[in-house]
Design goal:
single chain, 218 residues, alpha+beta, Arc Repressor Mutant, subunit A, Alpha-Beta Plaits, four-stranded antiparallel sheet, three-stranded antiparallel sheet, 33% helix, globular, binds zinc ion
Length: 218
């Protein structure tokens, strides 16, 4: 078995990226596979955390919002603290922690005074060593961050031990859902844990704490 996405998975994802409201039937007729195939492939990609949801894409410009790119710098040890200070602010739309102890945030807002207040609050954060900002003038391209190339595969952590798996590993189906384990030992222990939890809690899904899959390129 392979954890890699095949051509059918990629075709389904392309259709969904183009139109998140496309029905399984629409997708099935567009790419020439059966509706149950589309449905089970989508479910499997939801289960591993690759498909995180379906959202409505709004145009900040039509809403009349102003966008700003903000670059913050801190000591490497303080990055998490700075991220915690900013990430829940409504006007902060995206946060990227960069390799050189910098944090890039994209902000959108209506109200200049709200933005000024936010900047003033950041000025009070001792962990922020430097702050640069520029207003967004045009957005010639704005795509989802995951690039769906032909090489796109999956990086999934073993549901039992948490080790990163690439092409190796075991995919098992329990109660109609896929579960990913890195080796037969983890598989055995996971099955035991699953059965035990199921006995005490009734119907359960995959026992995985957080989203374990991200799209990546080889
Ligand atoms: Zn494992």
């Amino acid at each position: 078995m392979s954890l890699n996405l095949d051509e059918v998975d990629r075709k389904i994802l392309r259709e969904l990226q183009r139109d998140g409201r496309a029905s399984f039937r629409d997708i099935s007729s567009r790419i020439g596979v059966s509706t149950p195939t589309v449905s089970s492939r989508v479910q499997a990609m939801v289960d591993v955390g690759l498909i995180k949801g379906y959202s409505t894409v709004l145009d900040a410009g039509v809403l009349g919002q102003v966008s700003v790119a903000l670059l913050l710098e801190s000591k490497p040890a303080d990055l998490d603290k700075v991220v915690d200070k900013i990430k829940d602010e409504e006007l902060v739309r995206q946060v990227y922690v960069l390799s050189d102890s910098r944090i890039l945030c994209m902000l959108s807002f209506y109200n200049q005074s709200k933005y000024q207040k936010f900047l003033e609050s950041l000025a009070q954060v001792p962990e922020i060593l430097r702050m640069d900002n520029s207003m967004v003038m045009k957005v010639p391209k704005e795509s989802p961050r995951a690039a769906l190339t032909d090489e796109a595969g999956l990086m999934i952590r073993c549901y039992y031990c948490g080790h990163m798996m690439k092409d190796e590993g075991v995919k098992i189906k329990l109660d109609g859902k896929y579960h990913y384990l890195c080796c037969s030992v983890c598989e055995k222990l996971y099955r035991e844990k699953y059965e035990k939890l199921k006995k005490s809690a009734g119907n359960i899904g995959p026992i995985v704490q957080e989203s374990h899959a991200v799209a990546h390129s080889h």
